[in-house]
Structures are given as structure tokens and as C-alpha cells.
Amino acid sequence: MRDGQRVKLNVGASDPRGRYRGPEWVNVDYSRFFRGQRFHRFAIADGTMLPFRDGTFNEVHAIHVLEHVPRHIVRQNGTKVEAHAAFVQEIGRVLTPGGRGYIEVPNFLEVCRKIVECSGMAAEGNAAYQEEIRIRTVGVYGKGRHEGDLHRWGFSPWGLESLFKFAHLQYHRESDMISAHYKQEPVLLYRVWK
């Protein structure tokens, strides 16, 4: 805590808005897309190697970030790292005892199920089903509006849960959403803690 205030971390915050603009939030992103704007406590950092001490944050959010991380990365020293595992481990490392993290990603299986469900009607020329497939395809690949806005991996519940187990984190699948992404696509939201 700093001056009795809870300190929170938002990982993947190229354009922090809403609650993330508050003074209790530190926002980090690997790349800065909105360079002309100034935000309170923003740092360029790699989510697989966060530049913070162990147990720094009471709360960590990684909302629609993990799907943008490549599965493997090569560090400057040439070491190949499983980036998804490193990312989740870092969230656990910077959490205070009793702190909580939230990780939200598109539900890859549900997105694919929707595409298959709509494909027959779309093939027959039904514009509504074609639009549904277009929207769901964005859930698979990302919007591609700028560098980093591409999905590099799709997650299932058991895939995420295996990462949490690997990182020695407790977890619970949540139904009270943090973001409004669930209105656009099926999502998975997990709360994690040590």
C-alpha cells in the first residue's frame, strides 16, 4: 500500500480508460499505441517480465491480453520461454498475499461453436448469419487495427486452468464480468490468487 491506498496493476493497457485512469492504478503495456495521450502511472513493460517487486499489487487485471501474447518468445539472451506460463506466473508473483488477479480472454471453443452453428445458414446467403460469422471470426483472430491487435492463441477453460496450476495459483471461473467484452463475444474470466 502507498499512503493507505490500494495499489492495482492493469497489464495490457495501451489506452487506459474508465477505472484504470484512477490514481490507484499502474498501467503497463508492451507497446504504446496512443502515444499522444498522457496517463497517470503508465509504463512500457513486458507482461512476462514485469518490472515490479514480488507482492507489490493488491489487484491485477489482464483483460483481453493473454490471447495477444505469442505462445513462445525468445529472450535477448537466446532463451526460449513459454510465454503464456511466464505471463501467468508474473501475475502471481506481483500479487500481495490475499491479493487477487483477473484474467479474461475470448472463449475460443464457444467462438468456434458459434461459427459452425451459423455456417449452414451463411452458406445459403443469409446475411444475418454471414455477419455473425464475421463478428465471431474477429473473436478468433482479433481486429487487426494496429500492431499487437491480433490474437495469437485461443484459450479453452482447461487450457487456462492448466496455466494457473503450473503457476501454483488458486483459481475460480467468474460470471460477474469486469469488461463489456462479453456483449461482443463469449469470454472466459478467472479470478486467481496465491
Properties at a glance:
single chain, 194 residues, Rossmann fold, 4 helices
Annotate the secondary structure layout.
Layout: E1 8-11, E2 25-29, E3 42-44, E4 57-63, E5 72-74, E6 80-82, H1 83-94, E7 95-106, H2 108-123, H3 127-141, H4 157-166, E8 170-173, E9 187-193
Helix pairs in contact: 2-3
Explained architecture:
The strands form two sheets. A seven-stranded mixed beta sheet has the order 3-2-1-4-7-9-8. The chain has a two-stranded antiparallel sheet with strand order 5-6. Helices cover 27% and strands 25% of the residues. The chain has 194 residues and is an alpha/beta fold. The protein has one domain: 3-Layer(aba) Sandwich (Rossmann fold), CATH 3.40.50.150. The protein has four helices and nine strands, in the order E-E-E-E-E-E-H-E-H-H-H-E-E. The two termini are 18 Å apart. The protein has helices at residues 83-94, 108-123, 127-141, 157-166, and strands spanning 8-11, 25-29, 42-44, 57-63, 72-74, 80-82, 95-106, 170-173, 187-193.
CATH superfamily: Vaccinia Virus protein VP39
Mean pLDDT, all residues: 87
**CATH architectural grouping:** 3-Layer(aba) Sandwich
Number of domains: 1
Distance between the termini: 18 Å
Order of helices and strands: EEEEEEHEHHHEE
Number of helices: 4
Number of strands: 9
General shape: globular
Low confidence ranges:
none
Please give a quick description of this structure:
The chain has 194 residues and is of the alpha/beta class. Helices cover 27% and strands 25% of the residues.
